[in-house]
Amino acid sequence: xxxxxxxxxxxxxxxxxxxxxxxxxxxxxxxxxxxxxxxxxxxxxxxxxxxxxxxxxxxxxxxxxxxxxxxxxxxxxxxxxxxxxxxxxxxxxxxxxxxxxxxxxxxxxxxxxxxxxxxxxxxxxxxxxxxxxxxxxxxxxxxxxxxxxxxxxxxxxxxxxxxxxxxxxxxxxxxxxxxxxxxxxxxxxxxxxxxxxxxxxxxxxxxxxxxxxxxxxxxxxxxxxxxxxxxxxxxxxxxxxxxxxxxxxxxxxxxxxxxxxxxxxxxxxxxxxxxxxxxxxxxxxxxxxxxxxxxxxxxxxxxxxxxxxxxxxxxxxxxxxxxxxxxxxxxxxxxxxxxxxxxxxxxxxxxxxxxxxxxxxxxxxxxxxxxxxxxxxxxxxxxxxxxxxxxxxxxxxxxxxxxxxxxxxxxxxxxxxxxxxxxxxxxxxxxxxxxxxxxxxxxxxxxxxxxxxxxxxxxxxxxxxxxxxxxxxxxxxxxxxxxxxxxxxxxxxxxxxxxxxxxxxxxxxxxxxxxxxxxxxxxxxxxxxxxxxxxxxxxxxxxxxxxxxxxxxxxxxxxxxxxxxxxxxxxxxxxxxxxxxxxxxxxxxxxxxxxxxxxxxxxxxxxxxxxxxxxxxxxxxxxxxxxxxxxxxxxxxxxxxxxxxxxxxxxxxxxxxxxxxxxxxxxxxxxxxxxxxxxxxxxxxxxxxxxxxxxxxxxxxxxxxxxxxxxxxxxxxxxxxxxxxxxxxxxxxxxxxxxxxxxxxxxxxxxxxxxxxxxxxxxxxxxxxxxxxxxxxxxxxxxxxxxxxxxxxxxxxxxxxxxxxxxxxxxxxxxxxxxxxxxxxxxxxxxxxxxxxxxxxxxxxxxxxxxxxxxxxxxxxxxxxxxxxxxxxxx
Amino acid sequence: xxxxxxxxxxxxxxxxxxxxxxxxxxxxxxxxxxxxxxxxxxxxxxxxxxxxxxxxxxxxxxxxxxxxxxxxxxxxxxxxxxxxxxxxxxxxxxxxxxxxxxxxxxxxxxxxxxxxxxxxxxxxxxxxxxxxxxxxxxxxxxxxxxxxxxxxxxxxxxxxxxxxxxxxxxxxxxxxxxxxxxxxxxxxxxxxxxxxxxxxxxxxxxxxxxxxxxxxxxxxxxxxxxxxxxxxxxxxxxxxxxxxxxxxxxxxxxxxxxxxxxxxxxxxxxxxxxxxxxxxxxxxxxxxxxxxxxxxxxxxxxxxxxxxxxxxxxxxxxxxxxxxxxxxxxxxxxxxxxxxxxxxxxxxxxxxxxxxxxxxxxxxxxxxxxxxxxxxxxxxxxxxxxxxxxxxxxxxxxxxxxxxxxxxxxxxxxxxxxxxxxxxxxxxxxxxxxxxxxxxxxxxxxxxxxxxxxxxxxxxxxxxxxxxxxxxxxxxxxxxxxxxxxxxxxxxxxxxxxxxxxxxxxxxxxxxxxxxxxxxxxxxxxxxxxxxxxxxxxxxxxxxxxxxxxxxxxxxxxxxxxxxxxxxxxxxxxxxxxxxxxxxxxxxxxxxxxxxxxxxxxxxxxxxxxxxxxxxxxxxxxxxxxxxxxxxxxxxxxxxxxxxxxxxxxxxxxxxxxxxxxxxxxxxxxxxxxxxxxxxxxxxxxxxxxxxxxxxxxxxxxxxxxxxxxxxxxxxxxxxxxxxxxxxxxxxxxxxxxxxxxxxxxxxxxxxxxxxxxxxxxxxxxxxxxxxxxxxxxxxxxxxxxxxxxxxxxxxxxxxxxxxxxxxxxxxxxxxxxxxxxxxxxxxxxxxxxxxxxxxxxxxxxxxxxxxxxxxxxxxxxxxxxxxxxxxxxx
Lengths: 875, 875
Known about the structure:
The structure is a homodimer.
Chain A: E1 5-7, H1 16-31, E2 39-42, H2 44-52, H3 59-76, E3 79-80, E4 86-87, E5 89-95, E6 105-109, H4 113-123, H5 126-145, H6 149-163, H7 173-191, H8 199-213, H9 217-226, E7 234-240, E8 251-256, E9 268-273, H10 277-282, E10 288-289, H11 291-296, H12 298-315, E11 319-326, E12 329-337, H13 342-354, H14 360-365, E13 379-380, H15 382-385, E14 392-393, E15 395-398, E16 401-407, H16 410-418, E17 423-427, H17 435-440, E18 443-446, H18 454-462, E19 465-468, E20 473-476, E21 481-484, E22 487-490, E23 494-498, E24 503-506, E25 511-512, H19 518-530, E26 534-538, H20 542-550, E27 556-560, H21 568-578, H22 583-608, E28 613-616, H23 630-640, H24 644-653, H25 666-671, H26 673-692, E29 699-703, H27 709-730, E30 737-742, H28 745-749, H29 751-754, E31 760-764, H30 765-773, H31 777-789, H32 806-820, E32 825-829, H33 836-845, E33 849-852, H34 857-873
Parallel strand pairs in A: 3-4, 16-17, 17-18, 18-19, 26-27, 26-33, 27-28, 28-29, 29-30, 30-31, 31-32, 32-33
Antiparallel strand pairs in A: 1-2, 2-7, 5-6, 5-7, 8-9, 8-11, 9-10, 11-12, 13-25, 14-24, 15-19, 16-23, 20-21, 21-22, 23-24
């Protein structure tokens, strides 16, 4: 028969999936000989059984729990529910990953009136016992029955008012006794039942409540945010109580083996005497720093310091510990790898290598790649920040801190910035025309749009702070007002944005520039030595290219040529081109665009110093470039010398029902081959020019949205013909390659055929995800929340590659392509290229590189190194 | 070395792919001992080499041709270019499939001034020789140099005017001589070159011209229409000339072994004495019926009749033959399986079985399934039709003939039809709200939209005549006018539509009802005995279900439940539902819709008499149902008791960027599970009601757009819960199944997982094609024409399943699904289910059924039988 309950003595730290993190570590501490209150763990598999059994604990598991209680009784020499020598328990949840949001803890379980009166006799401390009893009733009511804590807390407040006292510590034994009765009454009113007397019933209800809390809204939301699968389930830890509130010789606390904010190698934490765990975090009494324990209880401190060293050395990582002191005896209640800031993570990792405690590989694995982000952006001065309250919260769309004068249009933002002002651009939502304004702003605030809205994606690409989807704020664009709750901001008012938290502040806050310490540099040097996947950047201009290089990019994986058209001067000619009446007119306007594009390429080539540069030809549907304001339309109409009606007709002709599945990518280039010719001229002429300067770049020309070999061949032959002619004219031989995006399912399926002609592939996982699922990123917002709430999706496939579906297509494409062209260069560009889990998957797939926004390059490097280490470990 | 040229004696009828149809059949006739002028064939592979070699014939192939000419010289005893005994040649194209649009024929090749004067001596017939010479110059100029024939013909007309004669036959030997010189001058003016004298040069230029014509616009267009791959290429046949214009004892003609219009078993054809082939078709002289040859040249007729029997028996099919009589001797120039009408095809097939000439299987294979269509629809009386000219041509969107009074709105059409008028509905384009009006019309004419526009798809579904995309016509909706060229039609004017040709006629034409003769019935009985694939129909109501049954459907493969909502009464409640403010309000409106939907299902169940019925739950995005006119919006707003602004907001909330990839299918049902519950109630309650009447239907509930097992499970559990409760309440046990569409690539990839829960699959190949290619049918129109013109697409993937891409996904899905559920029912619904080539592919895939519109069921049955026969043959 399957085992669903494990005594601590039966577990160890490797059994996290089954026992949860807390349970596995309690077992491990026990095996290290550390003082751990005795107990057992009900497994995560029992949690899944609970759900399979219509949210009810199967009879057999109930039996197994009660039998294990018997064992615990014999180990502790106490008896559950026995008034003479009662076994009292704590019940705590513990999933495989640390997971706030779930029901947490019930202490003192096993109490009832009979047990309590016996316990009074035994401890001779009635105040302590009734305090424990009322806490138990309150916690049980809250977590098992969902009765809000405020019902109970308000009664305590009332009592204190009556007695004119302020501290809980001033409540007498009488008061505590009174409270237990009041609390039982509250329970009865709310549930229409008596508070359960039978400890076994208390226990089973508590266990079910823990399992049930696995699927409460907050827990689901947390899992969604952190990509934790819904089917992991939680374990429950049942442990003999130890009491930090037993008197002045007792206490409780939490501590880290090193400083989680700075990484300093020194015990860091706090404790309270005569208190239970919740008091430390509740904030009613101010805890003492852990260092004070050294003078207060030198022996206990010595023992704790010793244990913390044992644990750090044993786990090879900084530990986050909970402890309780009962009548002068130390008990360890929990240990786990401690959460830490990015700075701290790097320092601890590097220090521990220097201390000889871990290897460089372990150091790399100990850092969450996403934390690197905080090292690369401005932050607010923590001292000033602690004095400020955010006035509203939006989505933390792109990290960093920004403060500046408020402007409501790109034009005004640019103007103000040119006049020397620091600017925050506030928009309902942004569109490609705002890009230049975004460049000039310190930060961007939008009212609509999610984490993958235009503003968010572009800002992340620029490494610019952005708070998006700030629904609670309103913008009056006419009057140039930003209205947040009762406060109205006008143009030029100063606000501050924190893109790492989504907070918006009134007024200015001092910013701190990112400092890349020596530790970070050393750390990244290990990363680069170990990783095998190459990291390229998506960069559309010289500036981005330089940033990418500074951040360690090994090439450019994606130049989106369309982004070059949005600058004021160019977009005008570009619009004339797309609205041209015929091929001849279109060619004329293209000729005007060519010099700009060529210049851009030259600058990028020079910046990249012969590193690879992949240039994708025009991809989006043309109507994305259409003018929007009446003024712009009028100006364009006049320049084209056509009537308003004709202008409307031409603009309407570009409308599409499903632009994502419309006339875009290579389809556009096939219809308007003159665009492909112009772009080839720009790519090759630029290469010829820098060649003359001694820079030998090999441009990689990438055709978007290929779905059929013939599409590729058609454009390939146009490109080759154009390029060969240019080289002949210039009497100069440039190497170049022609490859394609793999972003529609059909090209993945037929990759073997396409690879006979294409010299490289880059997976456009954004589009590939859209087409494989059959939903567009722009529209999925309408149902993705429902999908998360109804447990249909564990993760957002636009954030992390869907390995099961999209991943299969990638695998097929890679296998078939390598069959016909073994050395074909294979990469990923798009948002997934900067996401650590997806990078690990790319390593498994055997890709050559990933390409991401410049600001994610360091993150990608760390993720790649981790992927490489894991790959070696699993060999 | 590869062989590119074959003497007729080296070929046979099986070598069509290499020698083309004409070449293979000439070889075959030779081997049967029939009188065929000697010659050889240049292969289709040479054509492909020509294109690989930048549209130029490789040197080696030129050599091979000239060497084979030497062999032909030795066979014929004549010498190419020899003035004494010249070998003169015909050059004719011949692809694997008969393919109009390519360059066809050059006769008399090998002539030059020297040869001609010798030939005059030899034949003693200078008029004949100069006639042949001027024809040669004209044909060569036309097909090799692209000089329009009118330049030459106008000179003949001029000469006849000068001489005041009307018939070419009255032109003298002098006139002919004069014309040869004039024609050479025209050639020189147009090309700036002398007319080539060297027969070898003439020959090689002619061969290249044939190859080049493979890719002229008309040929490409024809291939696109007929799904002929671009890479087949054409062969060229070089043959010794025989002359039907050598005098009164010579002649030429074409004939069929049976009547191609009626199928009557009697030689059918026509001939002209003293003429070359082109004269028969040119219409200058009226040819004689073939029967006249019996009295004119009884021996030749006898021989021809005999040969025609030999050929029909040998080819086991009705033959279409060309022949020439030179000085009383009969030569066969071509034979091929004859094209025929649907009626004729059936009669010939059945007759030949009765005559013991072919087996039933061969009879089935001899009929083009698409031809069956003409047997199922009204047609115009051919006698009346022959007197009419179409006034404009649109797309032949849905077959059949219709004539009626013109109306411009659905409402007015319905009204007029209720008053007893026959109605033709003319619309700019149709939308779902026109469906009721379309039902009441005899035929539908639209100005915009292609073969897969709403009007076309719905009309085909209804079996209703439709001419769509009639771009040359205009509609003035305000004034109720249809303007075609110079003619303006008003409301109530009578027009006639031929949906099989796309022709529109002014006034009424007599219609003929389809007659299903005894032959047809017998033929279909063989079909049903032989086919293994089951044929279901897509039917959304009782009427369609009954038609489907009459046409031999074995079940319903798709009930599109959304189509039930468009009737005037229902759409109002449905719109209230989709604009409801919250779940409760939505449920209330759903309750109002339930009885209608339930009634519809009951009627369908009764009609289908326990045959399978697959019911797909609500699929399209909700905004498709939104009201469009101001009136409708106003009415709805009042009924919902909300403000105009609120109304606008709710309508806007349903807008999507890419509706095809938006909130639709199961995504909608997951967000609004109350819709799934309502539909389940309707399905199950209806089943319970007919169960009580003794009809034991097993409804197959189909979830649309599934991409993940969890989506399916979520809805499955809601459906089961609802169904079980209903059955419990009714104390009645109904069997039902729950399955899913496979229409997004991800569900195909993960079909093994989904099949663990889904009881059946139906491939939605329309959507699967859209997502696999990444383009939508609504938008692809913008570039698909370019794709065909630029040879990127051979066929339209929306008409015929893309076997290479979409087909792979289907194969994977089938294999994986059968692994976990060996007996899973697998079908295809959607447009491809009625397309013969796609049906053959479905047979190969091992599907259980295809489902198509009721009017295509007989076509699908024939296609399925053919697929089955082919599958057995290839075993």
